[in-house]
Amino acid sequence: MTTVTDIDARGTRHCETTASGVLLRHQGLDLSEPMLFGLGSGLSFVYWDSKNMGFPFLGGRVKPFELTRNLAARLDLELVVRETTSPRRGWENVVAAIDAGRPVGLQLDSYHLDYFTSKVHFGGHIVAMYGYDDQDAYLVDTDQQGGAVSTSLAGLARARAARGPMSARHRSFTLTAPRGLPSLRSQVVDAITACADAFLHPPIANLGHRGIEKAGKLVRGWLQRTDDPRRDLPRAALLMEKAGTGGALFRNLYRDFLAECAPLLDSGHLRTGHGLYAEAALLWTEVAALITKAGESGDERCLAQAGTVLGELSRIEREAMRALSRLER
């Protein structure tokens, strides 16, 4: 058995920040999960639906791995990414890092991991790997998936080779922290304003505040969008609250990030944004509860109410991001 020593296998709530946290703590850099999420400008929104999808999806963050790239750029981390179409070369890339005493991040399809009880394909899942033997790989995943876990090498190989939406070609990566970190104050301002700009000026109507407004209109017809509302609507709500989002479609994480920034920035704009995201987090949880209730009861009034709340959320988050976009170093 080969393992990296001194691993802090602290499971947190979101997969990508869990993995980056493991890699950075091994480098001696210990940042909270909300801080990692915020510095990576992770917050977003997407209403995703297409002909080949069984049911619409509401997403609350940037696309997979963009958060890690943003985080590396903000903190001047050395990010080394390896991708290949060859399973053999992909495995060699992983074991080379671990044999050298470094944990490595992996992007894969969680469906094939032995410890996942919810068998849904998701090619954007990210874990940290810190060891292996002849049969198993040793990983750190989110708290809800067990934190320090193991999966068979065969299952890991299938997960890394999977193709589909958001998947990557045997992607592995390492992070190296510099000796001296840049000013956290200036970096959080850059992260917040970049996130606000993307949210306020989305290129298409499915993203950002425009996407939330669109969701508010379309969610009202979700009972007609499925032949099994008791399955699909509660599942959609569960993904908003429990599927590594930290609750409230990542708004809890962003609220906590803004609160953690308060000692660094004496700003009324920051306080306004934090207050509005605290309000938004509660409303997102209310939306999830209404969608669940609609699926279980078949009552369209629940979806009408959810649509109204989403319309209010579009306004609240737009106001929050406008305030946050005005932050100055």
UniProtKB/TrEMBL annotation:
Q: Which residues form the DUF4872 domain?
A: 155-324
| Pfam families with a match to the protein in the record | BtrH_N, DUF4872
Q: Where in this chain does the record put each Butirosin biosynthesis protein H N-terminal domain? A: 14-142
Q: What is this protein called?
A: Lantibiotic ABC transporter
